[in-house]
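User: Second chain of the day. Same drill as before.
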Amino acid sequence: MVETGGRDTRERIIEAAGEVFARKGFRRATVRDICARAGVNVAMIKYHFGGKAGLYTAVLEHFRSVAGRRSRQIIDRAEREGPEARLKAFIRAQLEKLTGSGRPAWFDRLMSREVMDPTRALDAIVETGVRPSAERLVGVVQELLGRDDREPDLLYCCLSIVGQCLHHHYAKNVIARLYPGLAYGPGELDRLAEHITDFSLAGLAAHRKRHDAIEEYAAL
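Assistant: Same format as last time:
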């Protein structure tokens, strides 16, 4: 009979698996490695997760969800505000990743591995974690541009906004060496969110002006 161990065992396996997956990647990591680190029988993986693939998805989803709580709170507080305020909240929530709040140090390495060498788990992450946030941003940008379409140029605007935030996240070690005076504490992140918001709003305003001029010319 398999000793299930309950919730504590499941969480211990997830934490141990995250470290092993981050170090070795999904394909090279073994169930035996994970169980040895967690101090459990290999049968526990099948019992709690159905196998290595199920465990891997559970690890990504667990720590993504934990790390995203603070970001969701920031966005929810601006839900009834105007599009400018909702854009700023979205950007500030994206920058919250820089604090490392709610996730272990190895999580960024694990996510980088998954993005560069994706497994089927990435589909689940995109659908449950990324797409809702992306759709929220599309709605805000549509409102700011006065449009309801999803033409590539509108989606490029959304990706440009996200790209500014991601650059500070993934290039923070390079930025620290280039500009040692820059920091990413809570106060600095508020200031950075203000900058990216202003920069993005100016870009969207210019884009809208150009798009409207093209539409007017086409109507002649």
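The chain has two domains: 1-50, 72-219.

User: Great, on to the next one.
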